[in-house]
Design brief:
The protein has three helices and five strands. It has about 110 residues and is an alpha+beta fold. It has a five-stranded mixed β-sheet with strand order 2-1-5-3-4, with helices on one face.
């Protein structure tokens, strides 16, 4: 009888007010996509779309076909609702206007 070697991995997904980490034992030849599907997270969070959402292992982007090592954490990233560059530009513009107003009122 052949025994399958198992590894322990985590699947992580974070929302603004909640973080989910699921722990699984999976065969050593499992892909990222297989483990995500096996974890059940797609049923619990139907907004996750593997065709568009980015995936990583410990913060490093990876493909769904990537293989895993023991103790890896698969991270499912949500789409950004604001462009960080645009947010910084708008904040800088507001601070510039405020500085001009403060100078004019002194």
């Amino acid at each position: 009888m052949e025994t399958t070697n198992l590894i322990s991995v985590e699947v992580a997904y974070a929302l603004p007010d909640e973080q989910v980490i699921l722990y699984l034992d999976t065969p050593t030849d499992s892909t990222v996509e297989e483990v995500i599907k096996r974890s059940g997270i797609l049923e619990s969070y139907p907004q996750i779309d593997l065709s568009t959402d980015k995936i990583g292992i410990f913060g490093k982007m990876c493909k769904l076909t990537a293989t895993l090592r023991d103790k890896d954490r698969i991270e499912i990233y949500r789409k950004l609702i604001a462009d960080p560059k645009e947010s910084r530009r708008q904040k800088a513009e507001l601070e510039r206007k405020k500085a001009i107003q403060d100078k004019a009122s002194s």
